[in-house]
Amino acid sequence: MSETVFLSGGRVDLRPIEEDDLDFLQREINEPRIWRAIGRSRPINGAQEQEFFENVVCNDDTVQLLIVADSEPVGTIGLNSIQWESRRAELGYWIAADHHQQGYGSDAAERLVAYGFDQLGLHKLSARVFEFNEASQGLLESVGFTREGVHRDGEFIDGEFQDVYWYGLLEDEWRSRAG
């Protein structure tokens, strides 16, 4: 397992995802408290996790990082669907269920948001969260995101339709808050 730290935080470090991490990722993504919260409805096998690694993690239009606390992987965070011309990206993350409520997600999000605006020159970050995921809504709001809208009945999870809340954060909003 790699010890290469890409971004350091107060509680966590963010490092590149390596093939050695795929067992952790597959195990945790299949945990009901995780797959439900991120809107997955089917299990992920080893070959699919390998495909994710090759097609998403290794793609130039994403930044995918492992969240590590005390040298232990606790989740992932990434900037997805980066649109270089319009300088936009979508923030996505999950924290392993055994590590919820410890501030790891907020610390990781603060680091990656700063990286997106300061290093990548992004203008806007977006994120989406399901109506039942109040913890994730709170995380986004604590980092400065504003709820911009709702896709009513946007996803079908656990046998029922769920609203999807869309959040956004503009660079100048973040800078005025951080300054």
From TrEMBL:
Pfam families: Acetyltransf_3 (PF13302). SUPFAM superfamilies: Acyl-CoA N-acyltransferases (Nat). Residues 12-171 form the N-acetyltransferase domain. One of its GO terms (molecular function) is protein-N-terminal-alanine acetyltransferase activity. InterPro entries: Acyl_CoA_acyltransferase, GNAT_dom, Ribosomal_N-acetyltransferase. It comes from the Archaea. One of its GO terms (cellular component) is cytoplasm. Keywords: Transferase. PANTHER family: RIBOSOMAL-PROTEIN-SERINE ACETYLTRANSFERASE (PTHR43441). This is GNAT family N-acetyltransferase. It comes from Natronorubrum halalkaliphilum.
